Amino acid sequence: MPRIVVDVMLKPEILDPQGKAIAGALPRLGFNSFEAVRQGKRFELTVDGEVTEQILAQAREAAETLLSNPVIEDVVNVEVVAD
Amino acid sequence: MSEQTQAFNIDTVDNAASTPDVELPWAELGLKDNEFAEIVKILGRRPTAAELAMYSVMWSEHCSYKSTKTHLRQFGQKVTEEMKKDLMVGMGENAGVTNLGDGWAVTFKIESHNSPSYVEPYQGAATGIGGIVRDIISMGARPIAVMDPLRFGAIDHEDSQRVVHGVVSGIGGYGNSLGLPNIGGETVFDPIYQGNPLVNALAVGALRHEDLRLANASGVGNKVVLFGARTGGDGIGGASVLASESFDDTKPSKRPAVQVGDPFAEKVLIECCLELFKASLVEGIQDLGAAGISCATSELAANGDGGMNVELTNVLLRDSTLTPGEILMSESQERMMAVVSPDNVEAFEAVMAKWNVEYSWLGEVTDDNRLTITWNGEVIVDVDPSTVAVDGPEYDRPYARPDWQDALQADTFRASEAGKNLPESGDQLKAAVLELIASPNMCDKSWITRQYDRYVGGNTALAAPDDAGVVRIDEETGLGVAIATDANGRYAYLDPYAGAQLALAESYRNVATSGAIPAAVSDCLNYGSPEDPDVMWQLAEGIRGLSDACMELGVPVTGGNVSLYNQTGDKAIHPTPVVATLGKLDDVARRTPSGWREEADGQAIYLIGTTADELDGSEFANLRGHLGGLPPKVDLGAEKALGAILINASRDGMIDSAHDLSEGGLAAALSEMVLRYGVGARVALDEIKARDGIDSFTALFSESQARAIVAVPRSEEVRFNDMTSARGVTVARLGVVDAQSGALEVQGEFTVSVDELREAHEGTMVKYFG
Amino acid sequence: MSTELPLIGDYSTPTAELSGARIGVVTFPGTLDDRDAARAVRAAGAQAVSLWHADTDLQDVDAVVIPGGFSYGDYLRAGAISRFAPMMDKIIDAANSDAKLPVLGICNGFQILTESHLLPGSMIKNDHLKFICRDQVLRVENDQTAWTNGYTAGQEITIVLKNQDGQYVADEKTLDMLEAEGRVAFSYVGWNPNGSRRSIAGISNAAGNVVGLMPHPEHAIEAGFGPDARGTDGLTFFTSVLTHLVGGKK
Lengths: 83, 770, 250
Prior knowledge:
The complex is a heterotrimer of chains A (83), B (770) and C (250). Chain A has 83 residues and is α+β, with helices and mostly antiparallel strands. Chain A is 33% helix and 28% strand. Chain A has one domain: Mth169, Chain: A (2-Layer Sandwich). Chain A is built from two helices and three strands. In chain A, strands 2-1-3 form a three-stranded antiparallel β-sheet, with helices on one face.
């Protein structure tokens, strides 16, 4: 069944404590090439049947209303992944 | 840094002097025309954009208390020498400090985070905890517990889902991660708080006398350091008009009004600061809260004996596009500013390295009594710090008793439609008791408290639902403190003066009920707009009432906070003066729990105090949708006498459990004592009905003050009666603890099983919030 | 009387230790229950030794407690970052060595032990998605480990439960193996408070020297400050390891 993948990230101006902690841990394990880390969320919405424009629009709306908190988060990507 | 500065046309002091006619967005920043004129007068020129930023936030209601200062002075004036005896630090510092003896001191404070908690409940509540905890750290103390009095809109309003879930998980998410036990608070639902929930947060800390630190910058040549989280655009949404300080439209002006908390960073900051204190590495310290660097620099400089010079480009940023004004106003969390002598710089840096905390040296203490802030060496702020931090505007706003107050007070419950057909028969009274303890305000709140860690630290001796939270401070001696927070907005609406006194009376009573001696008070005054004369009258009356009552009870106010503009349109919240009383226990092992256990079987149950027909503003009247009349009578002399009985009886082992009577009266208190450990009781109302001239309904639901229930072991009854009669305090023997019955029996009226009580009490929160 | 406010890792006490045992308590940034764990060690009669996550010296301790908290904020996954601390390398080696250093992981400590692969399985968010703090009844399933030998199998004890990510998960094969080998140390009795597979509250390694559990025995060692305000059922964890250290296994 096809899935719609929704990626949500904290807005760039919002502090991301998780990303900060991970960025601090990376060099301790010898990974020195990364300047910063920001951690986001990925949602997979499974669709029974074909993903129509209408369903995709619904997913976008759900992403904006439920899956993300527009006060602090942005929906950065909504895409269809076929299996 | 030069790359960064090129993005802005920096408005220097020289530039301000030579361009007097530049339009500045002072009105958008919340300044009134008289205030802007005053700033120009102080400086002798127009302010720079950065100075404007500083003055606008520091002269805001939130930071300057400009509408309330004139009234708040009463807290400092109505104080006796006796009340000052144990006061080590009074109002005006980050938090007050009270001497506990043995070289120990305690500091505590309650603050509001109301509006942010409505906009973004999780982060608003979380950063509320973070802010108050930093106030405690900056006194040199180790934080040891938190509490949170909460007020939400109607329990069945759809927005309450968002707000309640967010606030409770925010308090838990932040507080639990700090390793601070949450030991109590209160939760009230009332449509009057719809759109204006009250999220107040209290923190308490313990310190040795020698560790006391104050927020002042002294010693010329000492270094000023900013440490903790980096500075970002948090909490300056409203200040985005300052984008105009660059005088072009190219920079992004979208700044989040929401502050995001990082509890992990705060936990590290706590341990790191305590290590600094222990090694005496800081001369002065200030947390960064509202108004961020503006507040920290101006307060440190104003409280010190010299001035301060700061290079703002040294501030570590999370967002390199921030303008100087925005950096000064940013409310990014988990930051501290300290003053360090040059000798200690190396040791200071070693502590930062150990805890992996970022820091940057911003400047140093000077002897010119000026706060000078530069941007790459160019002066952008040159002010007398006192004009920013201390001598802000002050208003004696007009106030008057509202013209509707008389009609409100004349509308008594008994005379109203709601007061007809009151419960009389045993069955009706039983149904009313069950309805009461299932109601949103009286129901079991463990849905909330089980989301908070009450055990961490291993020193929690009592926590919600007991009358007060009790924490041990000294493991060797058992020395500890009890704290209770209380307010009743309905009482304060009916009579703002009495309402504030009743809030104090209840928290004082709760602390005494736990066995502790009340020692200090912190208050969080939540009101509507001070620009409305009705609200301003409520506020003035509240402060007058509370300060009079503190004087009479002999407990000083050591600090607190005022939260205004809690209103939607012209509909203000009920005046809600939340009062936190802190008491001292020489040995927390002596604390009195709020219910009886199985082994208390056969102990005598006494009601201390008398009951009058006082149902106006009560929870029962609230259940019937009525609010009018006059609140219960305040009798501070009786409160003091009751407190003395509870404290002495606890100390001398005369009582095993005690619970105060407040909202919901005797019906609520008896039910809660039975439910505390699921152990029943048999009581009779005949004696108090005959003595006080009241009926069964009034005996159960009246909210007369200065009352408590105690359970007295048989062997102690004679001593207990001797003590109460010697002190002239009225008591009545209501009945006995009955461990076999599994029920609360009110003889001649009704019997309700523990299971029925529990089902009613525990079902409500789960029903609405899952 | 204590005359100073203790810092993290400052477990100085005037009380003489009853046994000569030295038990390490590890502190990571964000550890919360280290002082409680040290108090429990002292209450059992041993000396508590502070072990800092960034150090590499085990200081000749006879056993180690990895206490609860939110090390590194529980960001990424609970325990995921702490597992790479230098001190953890030493502890993992010592636990797997012939000396079989006794290690107890409580809550976040349990999560660190699973991330370190000293114990199988993992913890995910509670099934009801909320932090939960309550007095929890457990059944002792295995009374033969270094940390449980003072209990009797089948005994029910009440200690404190408090966690956000406490749902124990593992594949069916692992769960079958744990049960078959008697490596389930504790089960939840009554309500399963976080949705853990097969109501598992704590497990041990095959040798029985490493035990991890979500609930907190260190919060139930002193009357008046634990479950129901008086439970002390957790103290036996800390006395058990002393018995184990003097060779007094059951």
